[in-house]
Structure formats: structure tokens, C-alpha cells
Amino acid sequence: MPSTITDPTLDEPTLVIVPWHDDVVDPIGYDPRSPYVEMFWLNILGPTATWLLRRVVDGLDHYPGGYELDLEQTAKALGLGYSRGTLNPFARALHRCVLFGAAQPVDGGLAVRRRLPPVSARHLARMPDHLRDAHRSWLRAATAPEAEVARARILAAAMVAAGDALDSLERQLLGLGVLPTVAADVADEVAAECVTAAPEASLA
Questions:
Q1: Structure pTM?
Q2: What DSSP designation does 30 have?
Q3: What is the separation of C-alpha 11 from the centre of its chain, rounded to a whole number of angstroms?
Q4: β-bridge pairing 103-106 and 109-113
């Protein structure tokens, strides 16, 4: 696949966005809107590309199979000037997402990761000391105690009982300070349990 977005692609008013499925990264990765990405990937992608990635992934939450991104509208929503082609800040942000592996060009559009991998040792080596120290602390905390998992399950169950959407559980748990790995696992487990239980309830 090409490693850059071509000029003709960015000369169009919209860009087709599709999810990038990765069986290796997805189970261990981090939502682009998570504290982990804000803390560590921000240093790699830069603020504009990070905000753009978050906006694009929001769209995939609503249209999981893919959608058309209005380039000018999105650029203006991020406070960026826009002109068609590759010589503008918005296009450069798209290119940074591709350059650092958050997205990849596909025929007619762009495949975007819904989960970013843990930052690599190469990128960590270029970070300030305080970020490297913070990353080591984050990894130590990532092995969550059983009490943290139990707390997350209680919170998720309460959200479901309150009628919250299943696809919002992970973000809500993150907002309540649950560790990213725990939030992702518990949200997936609770969602799967609800899907399994729904047919049984309809037969009762």
C-alpha cells in the first residue's frame, strides 16, 4: 500500500474513512481518545494530528463500516485554514497520521486505527525524561489488581442499567479514572454479556 496520501485524493471535497482492523494491535491498543494517547502519543503525532485522529475515530463510532469525511468542514472544526491539495496544515496532519502508523492509504480513501499500539522503544527514546518515567509508571500500573476490575464491572453494570449505550462504556469508564486496559476489557465483556442475554430475554 502507498505510504502517503496522494494529491488527487486530497483534491476531492471528501475522503473515505474506513476502519483499519489489526488482529495484533487491536486487543492491546489504546483508544485515540484515551489518557494514554494524550499523554504519550501526543508527543509523537503532535496536537493537530492527535485531534484530527480523535475526530475521525468519533466518526467510526457512528459509522463502523466507514464514511465520507468532509475535508473542509473538518479542518474548520479544528480551527485550521483549508485549501485543496497537500500544502496546508490539515493535509500535513493527515500525513503525520500515516507517517506514524495511525492510518494507511487504501484505494479511494484512508484506513484508520481505532486503537493505537503502545508507543515503541524508538519513540520513547526520543521523549523527555519525565515522559519516559511516566510511561514506566503507566506500564507498572497496567497490571490491574482484582479490585480495580471489580470496580469497573460494577460501574459498567450500573451504566447498562441506566440505559447507556454499550459503545460508550469504555469512554465512560476512562472518564471515571479506570485504567485503559481494564476499561477496554470490561466494556467488551459487559457488551458481549448483554448481547448474549438479549435473545434469552426475548424468549422468556
A1: 0.67
A2: B
A3: 26
A4: antiparallel
